[in-house]
């Protein structure tokens, strides 16, 4: 089929993997699959990357170049984050979809295309079209079939399936023989909110596999913030809202369920102070999707201070 498909989903949720699977299960599976990240294309070079160019078409065009559509001819092209394309490129893309032909930049000859187009976006294209960010006629051309990939945090049953898949890939890459995950790690994975979705899970598994010397991945091989994320009690009724630098502390504190201490000793005040500070750090990390530079900015401290505070908490709790 030549039906176009729109795949919606958060960043890192596996939209390209779904597109590849659609291609593999189609009659085009022996033809090329070409994936393009439209968000990474500059306005000036997007036309050349997608449609190719002729020699001398512009300064620096020393040779003829085939574009992604031509390379995918007969197969499937996947355009990720398509709403990032400029208006001019969207006009050219509309012609490709309508007429199934294209012309290289600087060219005079039309090239017939037989390519299935799968696009992806992390925002509804209908809303983007109403805001003037995406052409409405192009949206209707693409909207022959659409699907939405739920975020990983809403697919708890998939977490360990993908974790084991990423472990197998990493074992092969690193020539290691890690068998699996400890029960503690599986519990952490199930409770953690994967804001970065499959991309974050893959990176965590790769890092943990690299650091593991035994047969099973233990929690000591996981990033500090992920392990401790589940040891604190937060209000999880809603996702944390964005905060300003000046308002960071009050907003962060409002999400914390304060621990109850029944025994007072000489370390209680110090422990309470460190606990409260660390809970604020974790909440800032959550709000910044665990981008440490952004979290440090929310807390009005520098990145080095943030690392030192996290290290201090770890050392205190290891005593």
Describe the structure.
It is a single chain. It is elongated and about 75 Å long. The longest helix has 20 residues, at 268-287. It has 319 residues and is an alpha/beta fold. The N and C termini lie far apart (63 Å). Helix content is 45%, strand content 10%. The relative contact order is 0.10. It has 14 helices and nine strands. Strands 2-3-6-1-7 form a five-stranded parallel β-sheet. It has a two-stranded antiparallel ribbon with strand order 4-5. A hairpin with an 8-residue loop joins strand 4 (101-102) and strand 5. It folds into three domains: 5-149, Rossmann fold; 153-232, Helicase, Ruva Protein, domain 3 (Orthogonal Bundle); 268-317, Orthogonal Bundle (Arc Repressor Mutant, subunit A).
Average of per-residue pLDDT values: 83
| Second-tier CATH architecture of the largest domain | 3-Layer(aba) Sandwich
Distance between the termini: 63 Å
Main beta sheet, described?
A: 5 strands, parallel
CATH class placement of the largest domain = Alpha Beta
Low-confidence stretches: 232-264
Number of helices: 14
Enter the CATH topology name of the largest domain: Rossmann fold
Can you write the helix and strand succession as a string?
EHEHHEHEEEHHEHEHHEHHHHH
- List the strand order in the largest sheet: 2-3-6-1-7
Number of strands: 9
Name given to the CATH homologous superfamily of the largest domain: P-loop containing nucleotide triphosphate hydrolases
Morphology = elongated
Helical content (DSSP H or I, runs of 4+): 40-55%
């Amino acid at each position: 089929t030549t039906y176009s498909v729109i795949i919606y989903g958060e960043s890192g949720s596996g939209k390209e993997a779904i597109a590849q699977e659609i291609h593999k299960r189609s009659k085009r599976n022996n033809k090329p699959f070409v994936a393009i990240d439209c968000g990474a294309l500059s306005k000036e070079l997007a036309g050349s990357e997608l449609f190719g160019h002729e020699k001398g078409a512009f300064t620096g065009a020393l040779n003829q170049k085939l574009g992604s559509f031509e390379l995918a001819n007969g197969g499937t092209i996947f355009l990720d984050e398509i709403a990032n394309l400029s208006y001019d490129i969207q006009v050219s893309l509309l012609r490709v979809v309508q007429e199934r032909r294209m012309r290289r930049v600087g060219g005079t000859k039309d090239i017939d295309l037989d390519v299935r187009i799968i696009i992806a976006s992390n925002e509804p294209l209908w809303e983007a079209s109403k805001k003037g960010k995406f052409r409405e006629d192009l949206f209707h051309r693409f909207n022959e079939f659409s699907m939405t990939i739920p975020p990983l945090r809403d697919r708890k049953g998939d977490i360990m399936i993908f974790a084991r898949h990423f472990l197998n890939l990493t074992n092969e890459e690193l020539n290691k023989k890690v068998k699996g995950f400890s029960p503690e790690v599986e519990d952490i994975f199930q409770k953690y909110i994967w804001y970065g979705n499959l991309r974050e899970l893959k990176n965590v598994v790769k890092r943990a596999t690299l650091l593991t010397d035994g047969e099973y991945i233990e929690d000591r091989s996981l990033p500090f913030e992920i392990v401790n994320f589940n040891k604190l009690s937060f209000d999880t009724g809603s996702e944390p809202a964005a905060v300003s630098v000046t308002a960071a502390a009050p907003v962060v504190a409002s999400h914390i369920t304060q621990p109850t201490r029944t025994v007072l000793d000489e370390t209680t005040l110090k422990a309470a102070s460190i606990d409260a500070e660390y809970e604020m750090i974790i909440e800032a990390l959550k709000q910044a999707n665990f981008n440490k530079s952004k979290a440090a900015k929310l807390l009005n401290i520098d990145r080095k201070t943030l690392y030192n505070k996290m290290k201090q908490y770890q050392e205190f709790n290891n005593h």
